[in-house]
Amino acid sequence: MALKGGRGRAFGIHSLGFQEDVDIMKKFNFDAYRFSISWSRIFPNNDFCFLDGTGEINWEGVDYYDRLIDYLILQGMHLPTMQTSAFERYGDRVKNWFTFNEPRVVSALGYDSGFHAPGRCRSERQIGILLISFGTSLIHTQQLTKPRPREPGISTLDGMIPNNATADVSVDEYHHYKEDVDIMKKFNFDAYRFSISWSRIFPNNDFCFLDGTGEINWEGVDYYDRLIDYLILQGITPYANLYHYDLPLALHKEYLGWLSPKIVDAFANYADFCFERYGDRVKNWFTFNEPRVVSALGYDSGFHAPGRCTNCKFGGNSATEPYIVTHNLILSHAAAVKRYREKYQVDQKGKIGILLDFVWYEPYTHSAIDEAAAQRARDFHIGWFLHPLTYGYYPKSIQEIVKDRLPKFTADQVKMVKGSYDYVGVNQYTSYYMKDNGVTNPKPVSYQDDWHVEFKFDRDGVPIGPQAYSDWLYIVPWGMYSAVTYVKINYGDPVIILAENGMDQPGSVTLPEGLRDTKRINYYKSYITELKRAMDDGATVIGYFAWSLLDNFEWRLGYTSRFGLAYSDWLYIVPWGMYSAVTYVKINYGDPVIILAENGMDQPGSVTLPEGLRDTKRINYYKSYITELKRAMDDGATVIGYFAWSLLDNFEWRLGYTSRFGLVYVDFKTNMRYPKESAYWFKNMLKREKNN
């Protein structure tokens, strides 16, 4: 195997000191250098085309590449390069050419997502959705790709997450669950709340089991068996949630999912399967996590999947659909609870409830209209679900404002819905002021508009509380006391589980800084103090879950936000992907000659000397990936070259100088070069290869 090393760009720091950089390559035994020729460097006005034989040429740029090529040859380097317009000028010396580097990125990121220049895309973008406890839930933590653990859910709809992130792997609890459970045990946690994926268990998403049939993905079923068994083995009580925004995509395509009454039986059948399979060990169940978010963000604002709203790309009606969806969610919850109570609860001796988000709404002033505005906000928020589940009907304020847009429960449905929980989970993070907006639209506009309120985040310039990283999260400990006490007083003193509570740091925070989360410690101290005060005043709270165990995929924020008690390193090194990719090209495209033209991993751009030189993780990355490349070659792939990305730390597109891929550390202020430990590893490895 001929291993080639090094790679640079034809712009930026490299062009200022190419002889020094070529000398570094020679020193470290690299025998080839892949570089790019800049179209705009040679033709500065970009209009040359030379169809008529004319055009302005920047001879200084042309000569630069002459000097670079000549010096590379002088030092014994091979020259794969790119750009077709340079054949005549440089072809006497360059014998290996590429036309384009990653043209798919030009098309996809330049003209589909608009993430790269020229930034073109459709103006409407569907926001993808994925998952949220101390505990965790499906898409937040569980790998979605290999092996076949899960089929598409509604969360796979087109999305626009920072840095084009996805949760295809997230923090990969699917393969690391034992490690994660061991962390819980080490830190004395005695319960774990997780979510089961509907589409992981029923891969074709068309089961519904109305006729008793349907394909079951036993690999997915067995994963939850293993997780539950290991939790119990370690003395940790499992709390299982059945739905965390992950509707099987086929049900949305077939009958628009939560907009159809058909969904009620489908969900009850899915729940029934879980009760029967896991109920001998799981004694604490939740049907839904934050169903209000499904209705409000999925069907009112269109901010989450399925991205429906008035004038949204995927259709919708913000004045009616949120209320239809909530009605079907409530009926689905009640139907599942009915199944559990009639078929399983007596023998399994478990309990079941629902998880509801609750921002505390404080009146902006002590005026009667602001007091009423705050109460409307509470009704339209937690009351939208908890009121019918407790009393069998929607809050009076919702009935008076929404009128005939609000679906009605039949007498039989009231009987099923009323009292359909053994406990209620409350997710509480933050608080806002509410002000009456003094405006009532003559024609209904949306669920949010029906509140008739104005959100306020400060009084007289004083914020309601300090902000965490997320722009919606203000740190307001007394809101915890107010929210829990409100549920106690207004809903018959139910048994409460405080099911989510936490705050985030920026996703960009690095080690070891990311471990020093004093602000989070103070957050938890103050919120738990207020929770205890509510308990001392009579609230029946039997459990508390921090959000979350791990830093993970945070919906629209992707990986730019960290809520975890455990820091997650999000670069997933998957060496077997190298073997799979190379073998795939061999098998499917006629066994072509392959040059592995880019391979590498980065460090944070902020890493300083000497720490930046100690890149053991990069060494292990290259070891494992090159091993898999060799395995593909041993299995018949025709690979004639390998290039590491990259020789130098440099400008990394949208990431700018915040990311370092180089084998050589570059001080971006002085352009001084310092070889990293990975460069010396490459040198020794290449020496061994040549000797063999």
UniProtKB/TrEMBL annotation:
Gene3D superfamilies: Glycosidases
Taxonomy, superkingdom: Eukaryota
Protein name: Beta-glucosidase
Coiled-coil ranges per UniProt: none
Residues annotated as signal peptide: none
Pfam families: Glyco_hydro_1
Family indicated by similarity: Belongs to the glycosyl hydrolase 1 family.
GO biological process, one term: carbohydrate metabolic process
GO molecular function, one term: beta-glucosidase activity
